[in-house]
Amino acid sequence: MSGAVETAARSSSPKLMPRPDASIDAVDLILAPVPEAARPVRRPRPPPPPSTNDLLAQLVRTQVPQPPRADEPPVDIAERDRAIDDVVRELLEDRDAAYRSVAVLYQDFLVRCRIRRVPGEALALPAFRRKLAVVRAGVAEETAQSETWQTALSLSTQLADDVQGVFLVLARAALEGLPCPSDAALARAYGTHSTGRARRLLAYFEERGLLVVRMDLRNQRIVAFPDLSTETAPGNPDAPDYDDRAAAE
Asked: Which is it for strands 221-225 and 230-231: parallel, antiparallel or unpaired?
């Protein structure tokens, strides 16, 4: 079957389109204010977590003292003090106790007091620090009752809690006529293995006017306490700590 054939070119020329009715002014687009991006909100940094010492101090402050029951006998203060001293001495029998923080020792102390059923309220953290320094000095009972030792305790309150024990170790040696403790022994009393820190502590005590350090002709160290009118016997500052010798054996 046949019919008429029509031909047309495949290409076409571009044509202009009519202008749209709703025109947009290009100047308005250029001068239009750019919307500001939302600024990120800065959140305040969270406070640092409290230290172990702060937690223990808060625990002690929040402890509510329990009123004594009617069937409980009154607390003997002298007996309670002796029981606390025994617990602290037992605590310090551990050779590693000298290098533990006060917070760890205090927590262990509270547990031991509960086990031994020490009567009365728990010893507060500041009082425990003080008790720890006194017991670490290892003063004899006769010396502890003397007025000179009470003066030494009063002098130690001028110092920070963490160095009072070192001062009392030196004072005890002077009052009992013992050789001046070595740098290693003083470092252990300070809770460190650094003998340099021990020597700096001696210089610090001397700057405060609490003691005077001198060397004899044999290069042995003597520590004098002007306020106590006494001094230690000569001692070798480089001698090893007796506790280290016991550990080696």
From this structure: antiparallel
Q: In this structure, which amino acid lies at residue 56?
A: L
The number of residues making up the chain comes to 249
Angle formed at CA 108 by CA 102 and CA 114, multiple of 5 degrees: 135
Q: Can you point out the beta strands (E) in 43-190? A: none
Of 236, 247, 219, 242, which is closest to residue 182 (Cα–Cα)? 236
Angle, alpha carbons 178-148-180 (nearest 5°): 20
Beta bridge partners of 121: none
Helix (H, G, I), strand (E, B) or coil at 32: coil
Q: What is the pLDDT of residues 130-181, one digit of tens each?
A: 888 888 888 887 888 899 999 999 999 999 988 999 999 999 999 999 999 9
Structure token pair of residue 72 = 């409980």
CB 243 within 8 A of CB 188: yes
Cβ pair 120, 78 in contact under 8 A: no
DSSP, collapsed to helix, strand or coil, labels residue 174 as helix
Place of tokens 């937690």: 55
**Secondary structure (DSSP) of 175-232:** HTTPBPPPHHHHHHHHT-S-HHHHHHHHHHHHHTTS-EEEE-TTS-EEEEETTTTEEP
pTM of the model: 0.64
Q: If one looks up domain 140-244 in CATH, what number appears?
A: 1.10.10.10
- And the tokens for 26? 């290009």
